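User: I'm curious whether this sequence folds into something compact or stays loose and floppy. Could you predict its structure so I can see for myself?
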Amino acid sequence: MSHKDRLRLAITLGDPAGIGPEVVLKALAPDILALADITVVGSKRLLQQHHGYLQDSALLEKRSIADPSNLQILDIALDSQITIGQPSSASGAASFRYLQRSIERTLAQDFDGIVTGPISKSAWNAAGHDYPGQTELLAEMSGCPEFGMMFVGRSPHTKWQLRALLATTHIPLVTVSAQLTPELMSSKLQLLVRCLAQDFAIDKPHICIAGLNPHSGEGGQLGREEVDWLQNWLQQEQTRYPQVKLTGLLPPDTMWVAPGQAWFGTGHSKAADGYLALYHDQGLIPVKLMAFDRAVNTTIGLPFVRTSPDHGTAFDIAGKNRADATSMREAILLAVELIKKRNG
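Assistant: Here's the prediction. I'll summarize afterward.
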């Protein structure tokens, strides 16, 4: 692949007071930099500061740490002083600008995709930006009313790939039932079917769908949503997608047994190509148990690829050379893989 044809990837630092700058520098090893034209979006001075302590730390293992002087950096200077490990309105404003600028440049076709560092929602709010997370800003600026939060991870034990989509995301548990509607479920399932075909070349997938209540409602004894509308909805969707094998509504506590077997290689597995969980913890507790250091958050439904490591800002260890860059590295690798598939 010539330099002219190389894919172009933006990587944001996330909250500058968190571990984002550290995991970016640790992830950008020579083999990663060889995969794409990578531009880091954030403060160059902050990156140089992190590079200094990483190089000087007595705890530093023998590994390659990217030197900011050798990186392409879209330098967005900090307006206010940032204290590493302490989120603030200033750090929230900075991380918001990093993402906003990356989206603008990607929509202008300067980049093929974005890998986002972790942000603090409370710091965004303190800076006056009222969004549940980065996903919603990405969708808003891209003009995408229908989008989804999917988590992807490849097992280091068996190489099996987990793909789990959330029907609802960052909302209180008490509001989940009201938010779930046939229209919402149909939208998420359509996104998942399209994503599996477009990004993973799976045209006839097997998709498992969780019930909402314990034991999927136990025939209405433990909740009415399944018998009142979810079962009918699933039957209609199976008719709509004859090429897709839909299995559900599976009891949420047992739906993840087969993926666990496929991930750890503990026995015969009947794992599916995709999983649809109905609320945040129903999907993310099992995902993080299996793939905490390898899971990648990807936003589906956007006109470009976006991935992100599946961890937070970890302010408590920021600046201490204790952050694990595995998930950031996996996020970059997945972004490259998905962009290549989209570009044919």
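Summary: The chain has two domains: 1-144+302-344, 146-300. The chain has a mean pLDDT of 93.
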